[in-house]
Amino acid sequence: MKNIYFDHNATTPLRPEARARMLELMDECGNASSIHKFGRMARKNIENARGTLAEILDVSAGQIIFNSGATEGNNTIARAFAPEKILISAIEHSSLNETLPTSPRIPVTPAGLIDMTALDALLEKNRPELVSVMLVNNETGVIQPIAEIAARVHQAGAKFHCDAVQALGKIPFTREGLGADFITLSSHKIGGPQGVGALVLAPHMSITPLLTGGGQEKRQRAGTENVMGIAAFGAAAKAACADMESFAKLETLRNKLEEVLALSPRVKILGQNAPRAAGTLSATLENLSGETLLMALDLEGIAISAGSACSSGTTKFSHVLKAMGVPENRNTATLRLSLGWTTTEKDIDDFIAVWNKLRATLLKDN
What we know:
- This protein is α/β, with parallel strands linked by helices.
- It has helices at 16-25, 37-57, 70-78, 94-97, 116-126, 146-155, 175-178, 216-219, 227-242, 244-248, 250-261, 290-299, 319-323, 345-360, and strands at 4-5, 64-67, 86-89, 105-106, 130-132, 159-163, 182-186, 197-201, 267-270, 280-286, 302-303, 332-338.
- The strands form 3 sheets. A 7-stranded mixed sheet has the order 2-8-7-6-5-3-4, sandwiched between helices. A 3-stranded antiparallel sheet has the order 9-10-12.
- Helix 1 packs antiparallel against helix 9, helix 2 runs parallel beside helix 9 and helix 11 packs parallel to helix 14 (345-360).
- The longest helix is centred in the first third of the chain and has 21 residues, at 37-57.
């Protein structure tokens, strides 16, 4: 049986640098809020990681707030503004999509890109206080022209939030380059541990804390910091951003997969007419349920996703695909293959061999 992991957008394997940092700190004790030697050492470990992220994003260390991950970060921003004063894209992560069910949606084109004409009309009509658009979509890998979007939002007098979870370590960016007032990041998408993330703020910007009851993170996020996790997040971020050239080369492997999948007339590749992050392939497959396809691949030792991991285990149609105009059909499977730092060309070749076998049997597509 194969052992192929093509679900890096859900979570990516722990990088050696992050693992080493965690092991190094496992036997250390200290609350970063304590003033004794042990507390000061814990604080130093946190600040070193904060400094690493600050350097990557070209911000000051004080602009970074550590938290439990992207869902908390997105909720923090969403709940700091009145829902009727927020615009979000129709393809945002479920932590925004479900937190703001009544907020107007910015439509996207069939390629998955923001409809700029519609954005301008919504800015004029709604006069929002906040607009949120993700940089790289977690299901399709489509990259939005965030700097242009942020400029239009600011011209309309609103603040701009960008979920950059799927972009860190994959494409280069800085806070100023994006023009974002708030940026959401997550550790486990880049090879760090799960349960750690960060919010990045524009200079002199503050937020209404989602969690209160402590003075941690400059009173922007209460709760004892996850020292070990934060330190490993910093190590993973440094390693991932130093390795972006290797990540970009995954485009060749992804394209090889797409060429094989596209041989079937029942397969439609999504987002091909838009800029995409190198490691993401999203497609639909007619006349087959997603559960059947995922189970068949899992039995072969291949892990993929039917879209966002946050909605896995359900039969609910993806709101991202719906926004792109993909018809909802219970007999159409959706699949997402997301590659990452552990992916090899042998993985690609092994998957293709299995896919060709399924085409002849399960798909009956010769």
